[in-house]
Amino acid sequence: MTGIKIDGKEIAQTVKDRVTKAVKEIKNQGVNPCLATILVGDNQASSTYVKNKHNACEEVGIITKDFKLSSNITQLELNKIIDELNNDRTVHGILVQLPLPDQLDEFTVTSRISPLKDVDGLTPHNAGLLAMKKAALVACTPLGVMEMFDYYNIELGGKTIVLINRSNLVGKPLYHLLLARDATVITCHSKTKNIKELCQLADIIITAVGDRNKFTLTPDMIKNSAVVIDVAISRHKEKLVGDADYDQINQKASYATPVPGGVGPMTVAMLLKNTITAASLSIQIGK
User: Fold this and answer.
1) Same structural domain for residues 48 and 149?
2) What is the Cα–Cα distance from 50 to 74, expressed in whole angstroms?
3) How does pLDDT run across 218-258, given as a tens digit for each residue?
4) Which of 76, 86, 232, 278 is 20–30 Å from 261 (CA)?
5) What is the per-residue pLDDT across 253-272, written as a single tens digit (0 to 9) for each?
6) What CATH number has the domain bearing residue 90?
7) 103: annotated active-site residue
8) Which residues, at least 6 apart from 30, have a Cβ–Cβ distance to it below 8 Å?
């Protein structure tokens, strides 16, 4: 058998189309949705990610403010910039590109962002609301994965899902999203002893390790007709790869995501969706 490719580019375009329509509607109410991005230092990969996000915003009609800061910026200086953006009524979403230089504390930075402008869904407030099934703003990559399941009508209720990641950005938000949809979720990580055996039990595998030297999802680890969502992306042998070789996995899976072209485009699309959600929240609270 050959599985169905989960086409992230196609799904992302449907999200962008919906956001474009929503942007026009909200502008008719006198609000111009705006995303502010903060990039600290000159990390080339981070610079590329931010540029892609700005291009996507322009595509759907969201305006952007771009803050490129020195790698030597202090915690107090960065806190002041975030506070100013929190108080700026023309800014609806704030995104601080991670990772940050060593002198800056990521938790302190993400916690500083107003929960109403937290388009990455990383503030303790929004993380807590997610655990209570009440979050309006959710981490973009997990939200994109859920959009994929819905687009292909992949049932989650009662399914056994193995999730190989426990980060605040991917694993933990996904755990709560999946649990809210009545899935049985097994979270694996670097200390899990029997990942292969657990994966073989799974109806759905979501893997997000991102280091082929530490972990590779191989066909013998998945059962026939399982769904495989490969969130990881890294460079291996001069190629962009995920945790699995798509061509091999797809011979066994019922659905699978390629890398690139799978989850990646969804992350940016859901950032756009979160920005328009944040702009809508600003209207509701009268700002």
Assistant:
1) no
2) 21
3) 999 999 999 999 999 988 888 889 999 999 999 999 999 99
4) 278
5) 999 999 999 999 999 999 99
6) 3.40.50.10860
7) no
8) none
Long-range contacts of 240-249 (CB under 8 A, 24+ apart): 241/212, 242/207, 243/164, 243/207, 243/208, 243/209, 243/210, 243/212, 243/215, 243/216, 243/217, 244/207, 244/216, 244/217, 244/218, 248/218, 248/219, 249/3, 249/217, 249/219, 249/222
53 is catalytic: yes
Q: What's the structural domain count of the chain?
A: 2
Asked about 97 being catalytic, the answer comes back as yes
Of the candidates 16, 117, 120, 159, the residue annotated as catalytic is: 120
Q: What percent of the chain has pLDDT over 90?
A: 93
Tell me the pLDDT tens digit for each residue of 119-160: 999 999 999 999 999 999 999 999 999 999 999 999 999 999
Encoded tokens for 182: 């009545």
- In 31-181, beta strands by DSSP E: 34-40, 63-69, 93-96, 160-164
- Which residues constitute the domain of residue 259? 140-264
Task: Please identify which of the residues 53, 172, 252, 273 carries the catalytic annotation.
Answer: 53
Same domain, 104 and 151: no
Q: How far apart are CA 170 and CA 152, in angstroms?
A: 21
Please indicate, yes or no, whether residues 178 and 250 belong to a single structural domain of this protein.
yes
